[in-house]
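Input.
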Amino acid sequence: MVYNEIKDVIRQFRFEGKYIGAEELHSGNVNNTYRLFYNTQDGGKSDYVLQQINTYAFKRPEEVMHNILAVTAHLRRSMLDAGEDPDNRVLTCIPTRTGEFMYRDGQGRYWRAYRYIHSAFAYDRVEKPEHFREAGRAFGEFQRMLSDFPAEDLYDTIPHFHDTRRRFYAFVAAVAEDKVGRVADLEQEIDFFFDRRKRMSRIVRRIEDGRIPLRVTHNDTKINNVMIDEKTGRAVCVIDLDTVMAGSALFDYGDAIRFGASTAAEDEPDTSRISLDLNLFREFTAGFLSEVGDLLTEEEIRCLPLSIETMTCELAMRFLTDYIEGDVYFRVKSPDHNLIRAHAQMKLLEDVESKNEQMHAIIDELIAGR
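Output.
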């Protein structure tokens, strides 16, 4: 039973009311997550989310929680200053009985808890175009409200996460080592990434020379990290803040489009089904620019289409790197799962590249119409 797995942990947090039950949530891929149900003394309900932090992915959970607490406090202040109610719109961390915001159990596992966000739903894929526009607006609002937060005050929870040059060097090293003897059959795939190595490092170079600023970024901008109000269809809260750190707004934008505007899944074996949906591209971009159109620099706006290429190429290369190394990072369902994933992202990248001019035209139109 779920309760037996977590009963000793839930006693450590300051949950209000009487415990009624719990269920495990399976939407995430990193942390073990549970929804807790409580009845309050006045006859109401007060639900919570309990998570076990994955310390394989996040080696220093204290730094993860430092970032989350700092960012949510800033978001809450920004909303209050704007006359908005932050309840249900910003993650609320629940303290432990000792006043901390993280509990370490006898097995060395780390736990944290949030107040549950009611009357909202996170979609695993884009079901309505307007939801994708709202996701763009939500991630743009996230950027805007944190634009005056000092990004250097945040820890790098995953160092060099989107350093595409380092990713390329890791790929080259994997090819040279050829641990499990798969390289001989990958000549075309390897050439694909060598042909693009300079272009995919352009954003990193622009960050280094100061042409693109560092901002507070989310770094996991899939649509299922935005809570959509069930009645209004409006985005109410950005969740899953484990990877919040200093980075480029371009990485957030590019990865959101890569995932949400693709016409097929990340592991679609039939590559003929894979392309970039320009209507969904327009929807997300319109929502995003409605919040940050005046915040982004001209260089950032000019690089928006490049960011989609960069993030798609990075993930495709990571899938192929893992395949070459024997599938040690990503979970796989078959021996060639990572190769299928790589091929899917490579096909998407080719389609993104072919639509570069169209994307620039849409962005220019949206900017002019603001």
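The chain has a mean pLDDT of 94.
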